[in-house]
Specification:
Layout lengths: L1 E5 L4 H12 L3 E6 L7 H10 L4 E4 L5 H8 L5 E4 L6 H6 L1 H22 L3 E7 L23 H19 L4 E7 L1 E3 L18 H9 L6 E4 L11 E2 L1 E3 H15 L4 E7 L5 E2 H12 L5 E4 L8 E2 L4 H7 L7 H15 L1
Parallel strand pairs: 1-2, 1-4, 2-3, 4-5, 5-6, 6-11, 7-10, 8-13, 9-14
Antiparallel strand pairs: 9-12
Helix pairs in contact: 1-2, 1-8, 3-5, 5-6, 7-9, 7-11, 9-11
Bound molecules: nicotinamide-adenine-dinucleotide and uridine-5'-diphosphate.
Length: 332
């Protein structure tokens, strides 16, 4: 399949492009490089043996996107978005314009070009504070605590409505839990700008000696050790989930919603200790106040993805930490 991949130079996009190439598909990457570097394409080529076609373009640029789309595609996987929660609170219009406005511009181009299979990067954040665990896809979407989260809830709704108006469309909403790790080659991974906000990239920088200690946000949650619990998923497993969704649902009219996680929760301290094993050092930390907007625990029911997509994760927390540490050492 020839697949238009927006945001294909980013963290999850680059791993998915590798998986698409390895599965024999033909991904074409569009990225404005606002949060990625051009050299990612060369490194993808080193891993997969061939480089994808690349266009430096913004998804909001309808003319350029229209001429790229005119070359013909079987499907679009849409990763391009801004994703920094704190920045979204400070710059809400930027986030609504780039993420929601960008998605609408892209959808207009796809409708005009008759590209009818669409795979969307959604997030477990759409569940808000879940009232039961594990989270299933039929639970109602919740209330976001920041503009970034609202963009995901809004974009899901826009996609359901666009599919309703274009009943031949196949829309897959993939709700990622907590993607971490890196490609085992050490050639591609996450490249956060400035001080990381997310747990594993932060732990990686403490392990590397670039940050002094981890602040553990809350030690009094109703969890096994009092720290927050999340469903961490290896980015290569997540990438393979996109290929499975695409293979299953290309041309399959309807809206298809999946949780992509491992189905298992890990606490902040479990992640920290697993990382200590991976890097062979002890990682300093202190328990501080809870972070505003955080939920105590969140993990996925992955029954639907396993049974319908025939996909399940194969990499555990130890693999996630080992691959993150290999990438961290390479980027120092
Ligand atoms: P990323 O920042 O590494 O990748 C996003 C890519 O999109 C970047 O390469 C960026 O340059 C590009 N981009 C942004 N705006 C663009 C625009 N207007 N036009 C063209 N390109 C643009 O982020 P990621 O972690 O790979 O996330 C990919 C997708 O997955 C995003 O939609 C994100 O919201 C979603 N997601 C991520 C996580 C996570 O924890 N990383 C969790 C849930 C959902
Ligand atoms: N966390 C932490 N210290 C940090 C960053 C995160 O204790 O410096 C905790 C956070 O409170 C949550 C978990 O680690 O319980 C995962 O946080 P992350 O920001 O990676 O993901 P999200 O909160 O979006 O699920």
């Amino acid at each position: 399949m020839r697949v238009l991949v927006t945001g294909g130079s980013g963290f999850i996009g680059s791993h998915t492009v590798v998986s698409l190439l390895e599965a024999g598909h033909d991904p074409v990457v569009v990225d404005n490089l606002s949060n990625a570097s051009r050299s990612v394409l060369t490194r993808i080529g080193e891993i997969a043996g061939r480089q994808p076609e690349f266009h430096e373009a913004d998804i909001r640029d309808r003319d350029t996107m229209g001429s790229i789309a005119a070359s013909g595609f079987d499907a679009c996987i849409h990763f391009a978005a801004l994703k920094a929660v704190a920045e979204s609170v400070e710059e809400p219009m930027l986030y609504y314009d780039n993420n929601v406005g960008g998605t609408i511009a892209l959808l207009e181009v796809l409708v005009a070009s008759d590209i009818t299979t669409f795979v969307f990067s959604s997030s477990a954040t759409v569940y808000g504070d879940p009232n039961k665990l594990p989270v299933t896809e039929d639970m109602p979407t919740g209330v976001a605590t920041n503009p970034y989260g609202w963009t995901k809830i809004m974009m899901e709704q826009i996609l359901r409505d666009v599919q309703g108006a274009n009943p031949d469309w196949s829309v897959s909403l993939l709700r990622y839990f907590n993607p971490v790790g890196a490609h085992p080659s050490g050639l591609i991974g996450e490249e956060p700008r400035g001080t990381p906000n997310n747990l594993m990239p932060y732990v990686a920088k403490v392990a590397a000696g670039e940050l002094a200690r981890l602040s553990v946000f809350g030690g009094d949650y109703p969890t096994s050790d009092g720290t927050g619990v999340r469903d961490y998923i290896h980015v290569v497993d997540l990438a393979e989930g996109h290929v499975a969704a695409l293979n299953t649902h290309v041309g399959d009219a309807g809206v298809h919603t999946y949780n992509l996680g491992t189905g298992k929760g890990s606490s902040v301290l479990e992640v920290l200790h697993s990382y200590e094993n991976a890097c062979g050092k002890s990682i300093p930390y202190e328990v501080v106040e809870r972070r505003a907007g955080d939920v105590a625990a969140n993990w996925a029911d992955v029954t639907r993805a396993e049974s319908v997509l025939g996909w399940k994760t194969t990499r555990d927390l130890a693999d996630m930490c080992a691959d993150s540490w290999r990438w961290q050492q390479r980027t120092r």
